[in-house]
Automatic annotation (TrEMBL):
<dbReference type="Pfam" id="PF10589">
    <property type="entry name" value="NADH_4Fe-4S"/>
</dbReference>
<dbReference type="GO" id="GO:0010181">
    <property type="term" value="F:FMN binding"/>
</dbReference>
<dbReference type="Pfam" id="PF01512">
    <property type="entry name" value="Complex1_51K"/>
</dbReference>
<dbReference type="GO" id="GO:0051539">
    <property type="term" value="F:4 iron, 4 sulfur cluster binding"/>
</dbReference>
<comment type="similarity">
    <text>Belongs to the complex I 51 kDa subunit family.</text>
</comment>
<dbReference type="GO" id="GO:0008137">
    <property type="term" value="F:NADH dehydrogenase (ubiquinone) activity"/>
</dbReference>
<protein>
    <submittedName>
        <fullName>NADH-ubiquinone oxidoreductase-F iron-sulfur binding region domain-containing protein</fullName>
    </submittedName>
</protein>
<dbReference type="InterPro" id="IPR037207">
    <property type="entry name" value="Nuop51_4Fe4S-bd_sf"/>
</dbReference>
<keyword id="KW-0479">Metal-binding</keyword>
<dbReference type="InterPro" id="IPR011538">
    <property type="entry name" value="Nuo51_FMN-bd"/>
</dbReference>
<dbReference type="InterPro" id="IPR001949">
    <property type="entry name" value="NADH-UbQ_OxRdtase_51kDa_CS"/>
</dbReference>
<dbReference type="InterPro" id="IPR037225">
    <property type="entry name" value="Nuo51_FMN-bd_sf"/>
</dbReference>
<keyword id="KW-0408">Iron</keyword>
<keyword id="KW-0411">Iron-sulfur</keyword>
<dbReference type="InterPro" id="IPR019575">
    <property type="entry name" value="Nuop51_4Fe4S-bd"/>
</dbReference>
<feature type="domain" description="NADH-ubiquinone oxidoreductase 51kDa subunit iron-sulphur binding">
    <location>
        <begin position="400"/>
        <end position="445"/>
    </location>
</feature>
<dbReference type="GO" id="GO:0046872">
    <property type="term" value="F:metal ion binding"/>
</dbReference>
Length: 504
């Protein structure tokens, strides 16, 4: 009897992992369902004695078992995609059974929480500050400062809220943590509770992640006694993009409409139910146990570049040959990620654009491929790292259509609270449509314009493009939150780098 290891990650299951596991089991082999290594182009990946075979189908089973399969990739841990990474958050990926406490303990699990309880609040926060860990959800705000603010607030109740509302295109790192290493997230939350004096934590997951929800619910139940008196509760959101914004998320958790709250007051002082609250995303909280153990804060801070410290789980998706999860220190260039690690486009055609940071991230041109992965370097070129999802496009992509999609997405997801976002995005779609048809002709001008004393006139394509730029400016600086404020990034970057797509 051979031990066969196959991932139970949702992506692997979508590729046929369940059927494969059942077929191996029918042949009398022992099946272990583990987390995913993150080499998505090889899923479902079958592991026997550390050696990998993928992507495997039912027809490959006999050849895999008798050693004649052409799908063999050798020792998985030595595969260049894995061996070239610096895995801290994803150190257990592919190696452990997600809900197995023995596996977790044997790989260093709970050591961070034990140490946190030993050193106490001030020392935990000092370590976090020294590590330079910044919020991995998008804004990159230093986690230690947020924790220090909550720790310093006086209140009868404080909360830890984990933002697991992963809604960006090309992102799946949060999902992989929750499905593959859920105890690590719970441990990070319990450490945060210890640091700031919070006894209750909530994980807010969108409903599109049924596997992650089930795993987190089970993990919270299994680990309840270990993290007690800290209590973790799993909450399911309906899946509005704006609920990934921390104040909307808090409203949603309170059972209210997911609308953005004006700041101040900061959630750190007046957050969930008006109490001091740490809101961090999944990757931020899961980085914490390693910082408190592993090489410690100093070793963590040595990784990366500038003020972007530590590692970032980068998600490679879209039209890319080797899509998957790649964790490495900040500073790696986009060209290395897309061409060297990702293997270029899956279609084999030249790369035209890479959108970084979700649907509101800028489109980067191959001329910009030497930009290092770093919050400040990206901000300097009007781009975002966001949640580090990369969507690759080949030369058949139409960037005007993608700019239109950004405006359309904003119109669909706008919470409606402020005018630049609510109205601006709809006008943006109309403008891009008019640009596509060469501008506004006189016959199309409304017969009862608001400005009755203005002569009616058509607008050239260039006039419309100028208007689009003005609209983006208004949305960027006039919107209350990042949804309206960041929508101009994909639109303006598309216009800047691929003007011919707009003037066709
Ligand atoms: S920018 Fe959009 S999503 Fe954000 S508060 Fe304004 S209307 Fe709501």
């Amino acid at each position: 009897m051979t031990i066969i290891r196959i991932s139970d990650d949702a992506l692997a299951r979508a590729c046929g992992a369940d059927e494969l596991a059942a077929a191996f089991a029918r042949k009398g082999h022992e099946i272990q369902r583990v987390s995913s290594w993150g080499m998505h182009w090889l899923e479902p990946l079958v592991e026997i004695d550390g050696k990998g075979f993928g992507p495997a189908t039912l027809a490959d089973i006999d050849a895999i078992l008798d050693g004649s399969s052409g799908l063999a990739i050798g020792t998985i841990a030595d595969h260049p995609f894995i061996a070239s990474q610096q895995r801290l958050t994803f150190a257990r990926a592919g190696k452990t059974r997600p809900l197995n406490l023995e596996d977790y303990e044997a790989t260093g699990g709970w050591a961070g929480l034990r140490r946190a309880r030993l050193i106490g609040s001030d020392a935990i926060i000092e370590e976090l500050l020294a590590s330079g860990l910044r919020g991995r959800g998008g804004a990159g705000f230093p986690a230690g400062i947020k924790w220090k603010t909550v720790a310093g607030a006086t209140a009868d109740q404080k909360y830890i809220v984990c933002n697991a509302d992963e809604g960006d295109s090309a992102t799946f790192a949060d999902r992989m943590v929750m499905e593959g290493d859920p105890f690590q997230l719970i441990e990070g939350m319990a450490i945060a509770g210890e640091a700031v004096g919070a006894s209750k934590g909530y994980v807010y997951i969108r409903s599109e992640y049924p596997d992650a929800i089930a795993k987190m619910q089970a993990a919270a139940r299994i680990s309840a006694q270990i993290v007690a008196p800290f209590v973790v509760e799993i909450r399911v959101g309906a899946g509005a993009y704006v609920c990934g914004e921390e104040t909307s998320l808090l409203n949603s958790l309170e059972g209210k409409r997911g609308e953005v709250r004006a700041k101040p007051p900061l959630p750190a002082l007046k957050g969930l139910f008006g109490k001091p609250t740490v809101v961090n995303n999944v990757l931020t909280l899961t980085a914490v146990p390693h910082i408190l153990t592993g090489g410690g804060a100093a070793a963590y801070a040595e990784l990366g570049m500038g003020r972007s410290k530590g590692t970032m789980p980068i998600q490679l998706a879209g039209n890319i040959r080797h899509g998957g999860l790649y964790e490495t220190a900040f500073g790696i260039t986009l060209g290395e990620l897309v061409n060297d690690i990702g293997g270029g486009t899956a279609s084999g055609r030249p790369v035209k654009a890479v959108q970084v940071g979700g649907p509101l991230g800028a489109y980067l041109h191959p001329d910009q491929f030497d930009i290092p992965f770093d919050y400040e370097a990206y901000a300097a070129v009007d781009a975002l790292i966001g949640h580090a999802g990369l969507t690759v496009f080949d030369d058949t992509a139409d960037l005007r259509a993608m700019a239109r999609f950004a405006m359309e997405f904003c119109a669909a997801e706008s919470c409606g609270k402020c005018t630049p976002c609510r109205i601006g995005s709809t006008r943006g779609v109309e403008l891009i449509d008019r640009i596509a048809t060469g501008g506004r002709v006189l016959a199309g001008v409304e017969t009862a314009p608001q400005m009755h004393n203005m002569p009616k006139q058509g607008r050239s394509q260039d006039d419309e493009i100028q208007l689009l730029e003005d609209l983006c400016d208004t949305m960027k600086f006039g919107s209350l939150c990042a949804l309206g404020g960041f929508t101009p990034y994909p639109v303006m970057s598309a216009l800047k780098h691929w003007p011919d797509d707009f003037r066709k």
